[in-house]
Structure formats: structure tokens, C-alpha cells
Amino acid sequence: MNRTKDLQKAEAIMRKNDRGRYTVPTHGLYPFQWNWDSCLSSLGFSHFDIDRAFVELETLFASQWNDGMVPHIIFHEPDDGYFPNTDVWQTDQPVPTSGITQPPVAGFALCELYKRCTNKALFADRARALLVSVHKWHQWFANYRADASGLVAIVHPWESGRDNSVDWDRAFERVPTEGVKPFVRRDTSHANPDHRPTDEQYKRYIWLVEKFRSLGWDNREIAIQSPFQIVDPGFNAILIRSCFAAAELAGELGESEIQSASMTMASAMLSSMELLWSEEFGQYLCFDRVSNEPVNSPSIGGLLAVFAPVPQARIHRVAQTIETIGQTTRYLVASHPSTEAEFDELRYWRGPVWLIVNYMIAQGLRAGGEDKVIHRIVTDSIDLIETSGFAEYYGPITGTPCGGDTFTWTAAMVIEFFNQFDSDLSQAC
Ligand code: GLC
Questions:
Q1: Where are the alpha helices (DSSP H) in 17-119?
Q2: What is the atom index within ligand 1 of the atom nearest the CA of 349?
Q3: Strands 230-231 and 286-288, how do they pair?
Q4: Which ligand 1 atom is at minimum distance from the Cα of 348?
Q5: DSSP letter at 20?
Q6: Residue 217 gets which letter from DSSP?
Q7: pLDDT greater than 60 at residue 30
Q8: Which among 162, 101, 148, 107 is positioned nearest to 286, based on CA atoms?
Q9: Given this model, what pLDDT does residue 59 score?
Q10: Pocket of ligand 1 (CB under 6 A)
């Protein structure tokens, strides 16, 4: 393991993908700003340029919608190498954006950035302004996407950040493909089509976008009319952790209203997470709000759930499940177990390992003191970048680099692992 060299490479990639006030996930394949990519990448910046880390979040929140939603893509500069582009979304925002959201990890990231400021007075006003925006986004979820349990639903697979997960297969059968305007995909000219979602899935992604556009991007109507409404445990865990983080930061900055509203929201959601627990699978499962039944698919969203402060017994059981997954794959954590029929080693979220998910799972397992599993996740992650470069994702059996290369959030996570999990990396298990 070569810490110095790895860190130098990671920082160089972040600089290379830096467009001044935001980073692109990678050149070519993703030429705009992505929501959770930026938030997780700001953590990487915080170790060598804390001001730049804040700027990343500030640029993202400058495109927050009036209703509070923070879109998943901000199209800062025109680039016709991506589909679906602004002509498909047509959201009528000052800077063009997509019309759906992504996992709300901003609250967690913001709180971490502020903790890392050596001169807090210098950043307090900026942190406070961002906190107000983060809180507005959290309220948007409560207003538009929550049911009585407090848990929130996603209305498009892209919102989960796990675009083509096996978790969505069944619900996706309800999404039609008829009437979708013919289109040309651009992703498959930048990356190997065998590593990407299928054409059939793309038609359904676009059907949903066209449907939401036909509703004038009215989030109230979208939440009612989408044939795809899934409660994803990973997504909810991220929101819960961000709400607790917002409460903590609000406490520090003396924002008592935000503090108590965030605590109330996070606590209610956290107890409702139990509704998603499956003893049989040894993990959390998604819930389909349209068919009103659990989704019996043991994908990584149900492991990522430990990012929220769930009970110790749940963390321990999830750690055991991860160990079992690790018996049949060289690298943890496969996004779908290799023992399942739908497993596809190199196809995006149907098998590959993603360092951002590894990071959030490792963060969650910490609360349960699951050192052995954390050690393996963190060392596997560093082994991957050392053998296969800073790819978008990797085959869990062969370590094959997949998707785009010189990837921003992969680089950011390497910086996080070396700084936040240093003792886990050096510990011999
Ligand atoms: C893919 C990923 C998503 C990510 C985006 C940009 O769509 O599934 O999670 O935000 O690429 O990296």
C-alpha cells in the first residue's frame, strides 16, 4: 500500500475534474455537476482545500428549486456528449437542471466540513447559510415524499443513485415504453455498453422523465402519479444521518428551530426503519409503495442502511451478511450478491463495487464496532484503486475497472479512507 502516491494521484484527479466552482464526476461520460457526487467529493477537498470544499456545496445549492428540491444534475455549461440533456428535461430553471433529486448526503457532508475547519469563525456564516438550504431540502422530502411513517419514496431509479439495481426490476415492469420519443444514448459511446444499463431500461427511465415533464414538474403531482414509488433503505438512511448531522450543526450554530425540527424528523424516520428490516435476508429491504409490498431483493441499499444510527443488533447482523457476501467475492462490497441469479459482475449496480458505498457502510459499521469487516472493506477499496486505477466502479470478483476512469468521487473516497480510516488500514486482522 502506497499512501503518499495514492493520495497524490487522488488529489490530481480532483484537480483535473475541477471546473472552478464545481467538479464533474469524470470528463466525457458525465460533463456536468451531479448532486451526491459533489457532496461526497467535497469531503475529499476538505483535506487539502477547505474553502474549495465549501464552494462545491454552495454551487450545488445555488440551483435549489423554490420548493426546496435540490436537483440531481446541474447543467452549468452546454455539452452535447450527454443524454438526456436540457432539451429533454426542460425544467425552466435559471441554470438548467434535471427535475428529480438524489440521495441527500449534503447534510452529513456539511457537518463534516464544519468539524474540519481549523478556523470556525471564518466559515460560520457560510455554514449557517448552507444549513438553512439543507434544512429546506429535508423539509421538501417531508412535505412531498413522506407517508405517515416519515420514510420517503423515490419516484425514479436515478434518484436512488443506484440506477439499474435489481431492486427496481419488478416495479419497472409497470413503467411503459410506448410513446417514448426516439433517442440516441451517449453513455455507451463513452463506456463499455456491457457495463451500463440496457436499452430497455433506458426507455423506461426516459418514459418517466417525459411523464414528469408533462406534469409541468409539479412535485405534488409527480409524487402521486409516478408508477414507480419505492422506499429505499439506503436513501432513507442517508436522509436520517443528514438530519441528525443538521441537528448537530444547528446546535453548534445556535439555530434552535432547525435543531429541534431536524431531531424530530430524524428520530421518527429512524424508528420507522424497523418496518424495512428482514430477518430472513439479514438486511433491510426496499418497499414498493404502489404494490404495497416489500421488494425481496438483497441489494446493497439494504446494507447501506447502517449509515443511519440503527440498533446495534441490526448493525451486527448486516456485518455478518457482508462477511457472507465476501466469501464469494474477492472485493467487498458487491452491489448485489454473487450468489443471486441476477448478479452481473460488471454491469453498474447489479454486482460491481462502488467506493462511495463502501465508505458510507464503513462509517455506519463504526457505530457497531465492527472492526474486522471495516478493515476488509477499507483495504479492499485501496487494493482496488492500486490494481485497477480510480475507476467509476469495479468487478467484485476480478477487480475489473468499469465505467468511466479518473473518477472524482472515487478519488475523494481514497482521501477519506486514508484520513478517516487510517487505523483500520494499518490494523492487522
Ligand atoms: C451514475 C450513478 C449515479 C451518479 C452518476 C454520476 O448515474 O448511478 O449514482 O451520481 O452516475 O457519477
A1: 35-45, 50-61, 86-89, 106-116
A2: 8
A3: antiparallel
A4: 8
A5: S
A6: T
A7: yes
A8: 162
A9: 98
A10: 25, 30, 34, 36-37, 161, 163
- CB within 8 Å of 414: residues ≥ 6 apart: 6, 7, 10, 44, 355, 381, 382, 385, 390
The answer to whether 75 and 40 have CB atoms below 8 angstroms apart is no
Which of 2.60.40.10, 3.40.50.720, 1.10.287.1770, 1.50.10.10 is the CATH number of 3-428?
1.50.10.10
pLDDT tens digits, 320-369: 999 999 999 999 999 999 999 999 999 999 999 999 999 999 999 999 99
Considering the chain, what percentage of its residues have pLDDT values greater than 70?
99
Pocket test for ligand 1, best of 30, 39, 166, 353 (most atoms within 8 A of CB): 30
Which of the listed residues 163, 335, 356 should we mutate to test ligand 1's pocket, taking the one with most ligand atoms within 8 A of CB? Answer: 163
Of residues 67, 370, 125, 102, the one with CA closest to residue 242: 102
Contact 98, 73 (CB under 8 A): yes
Q: Which atom of ligand 1 is nearest to the CA of 409?
A: 12
